[in-house]
Amino acid sequence: MKVVLLESLGISSDLLATYADKLKAQGHSFAAYERTDDVSVQIEEANDADILIIANMPLKGEVIRACPHLKYIDVAFTGVDHVDLAAARERGVRVSNASGYSTVAVAELTIAMMLHLLRYVAQVDAACRAGGTKAGFIGYELEGKTVGLFGTGAIGHRVAELVHAFGAKVIAYNGFSHKESTALITYVSLEEVMSMADIISLHCPVTEQSRGLINAKTLSYMKPSAILINEARGPVVDSQALADALNTGKIAGAGIDVFEVEPPIDTKHPLLHSKNTIVTPHVAFATHESMKKRAVIVFENIDNFLAGKQLNIIL
């Protein structure tokens, strides 16, 4: 089997070599390339691959269909909406993801954004540097707040545990999987979660049900003092509607790590210019620890596929 890595996994060359050497010792070949968005180059690099590894690089059907030996796509990411799954299904290509590697990383940045917004960190930093004081920027505590979650998979559940440790109450939207309430999370309707929460935190995949779920209507249910965090996927949120809500004071703040497209983002994007908004270029998953965890999962996926089993099944 030929295994082709089409973009960096964010680990050292020495660590990558240990995984490559293991495959080579089993009689397989391994090739690694730098990321490119040039489809013709992707096809050239992937053409004779049996197994492709990508992270968050878009993988179009054009590339998948151009690989006659392709049997398996190993996605070093949790979400797979950047992969043409229809083309993979058409070709009988199996697909796995790297579910679980970024649970801690994403949950921790979620908490960081919540605290940053509640305590006006950006504003008091700027005031201090300008010789000012805390005047006008007395913050709020996470303790006693109600946090509303959209998506209570591994990441959402970890966020629930962390905010609960701060003394917050946790509610969640009940429209995705109709889970039963627990001692940690109470499930309620969309309008209830939006209207009751002091903080909305998004951790759901993009589906037909979730696309555009946060829009002008649903934002109108929120408290003027509430904040919204999106570390899920950009298309879950109508960006212009959110920017309008922020700029008109209908909600108090936002923390945004994901957009409709992968960074770099158009500098005119409305959320780059909205009031009291933290923006980060899709970094929630990216820590030194998570990259190592991801590599373990990615190569375990391959080991199992080669042994006739499949883990983390998408297709």
Automatic annotation (TrEMBL):
Domain D-isomer specific 2-hydroxyacid dehydrogenase NAD-binding: 111-284
GO molecular function, one term: oxidoreductase activity, acting on the CH-OH group of donors, NAD or NADP as acceptor
Any Pfam family the entry gives: 2-Hacid_dh_C
Keyword NAD belongs to the record: yes
CDD domains with a match to the protein in the record: GDH_like_1
Swiss-Prot/TrEMBL keywords: NAD, Oxidoreductase
Residues of the D-isomer specific 2-hydroxyacid dehydrogenase catalytic domain: 24-311
Matches recorded under Gene3D superfamilies: NAD(P)-binding Rossmann-like Domain
The keyword Zinc is assigned to this record: no
Annotated family: Belongs to the D-isomer specific 2-hydroxyacid dehydrogenase family.
Protein name: Putative glyoxylate reductase
Organism: Megasphaera hutchinsoni
Lineage: Bacteria, Bacillati, Bacillota, Negativicutes, Veillonellales
